[in-house]
């Protein structure tokens, strides 16, 4: 965020969506009409190709702008950051954006692309799994309201991630699979050693030993 650095920023100011970018030779800004506050969710499309930028908010008309000067590349070295932060740290914001604090609210879905001919994708690797998250709220209901954990499992909400915490003996996304004596989740764990393969039996299990090992648990050379 040094003064004069390239940046691209999107935010809310006085009930309007503000989109600004600076390619190094001056800031271009588009400001939407006031948001229709009767809508529960707002849909925003924005982009930039060389000096030209565009912004479309909900049912409003698409607006365009061209950045001043001759520079056409967005040269940034920090990660793409999305969301807000609770503490007041204006030095994290780009100079020239004139935002005073972080986004407050929830974000339902985000899709991005880095080329005009590419498909829009959810950010992260693998797709839809961002590397980290901070202060981005889940919209309206807890995602646990959409998930039914079975067999006594409990839904745990962890930021933008949810999972079922299963009772002993159960596993799987919704605690619907029984834990076999050979599964790593089984307590106590199986005793097959030295790369031996655990094979479940009607009562207990047996170990299939690799070449060079023997014994009940492949423990002997």
Automatic annotation (TrEMBL):
InterPro entries recorded: ConA-like_dom_sf, EGF, EGF-like_Ca-bd_dom, Laminin_G, Neurexin-related_CASP
PROSITE patterns registered for this protein in UniProt: EGF_1 (PS00022), EGF_2 (PS01186), EGF_3 (PS50026), LAM_G_DOMAIN (PS50025)
GO cellular component: basement membrane; membrane
Laminin G domain mapped to chain residues: 1-139
GO MF, one example: calcium ion binding
SS bond list: 166-175, 209-218
SUPFAM superfamilies documented for this protein: Concanavalin A-like lectins/glucanases, EGF/Laminin
Region described as Disordered: 118-137
Keywords: Disulfide bond, EGF-like domain
Residues of the EGF-like domain: 140-176, 178-219
Protein name from the UniProt record: Protein eyes shut
């Amino acid at each position: 965020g040094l003064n004069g650095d390239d940046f691209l920023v999107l935010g809310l100011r006085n009930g309007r969506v503000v989109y600004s970018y600076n390619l190094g030779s001056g800031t271009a800004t588009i400001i939407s009409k006031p948001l229709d506050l009767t809508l529960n969710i707002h849909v925003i499309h924005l982009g930039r190709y060389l000096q030209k930028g565009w912004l479309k908010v909900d049912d409003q008309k698409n607006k365009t702008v061209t950045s001043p000067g001759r520079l056409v590349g967005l040269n940034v070295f920090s990660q793409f950051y999305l969301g807000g932060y609770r503490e007041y740290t204006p030095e994290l914001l780009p100079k020239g954006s004139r935002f005073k604090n972080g986004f407050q609210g929830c974000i339902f879905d985000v899709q991005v692309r880095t080329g005009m001919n590419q498909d829009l994708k959810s950010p992260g690797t693998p797709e839809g799994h961002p590397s980290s998250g901070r202060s981005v709220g889940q919209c309206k209901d807890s995602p646990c309201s959409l998930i039914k954990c079975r067999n006594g499992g409990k839904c745990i909400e962890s930021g933008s991630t949810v999972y079922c915490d299963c009772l002993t003996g159960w596993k799987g996304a919704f605690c619907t699979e029984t834990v076999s004596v050979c599964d790593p989740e089984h307590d106590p764990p199986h005793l097959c050693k030295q790369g031996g393969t655990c094979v479940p039996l009607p009562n207990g299990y047996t170990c299939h030993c690799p070449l060079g090992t023997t014994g009940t648990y492949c423990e002997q050379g």
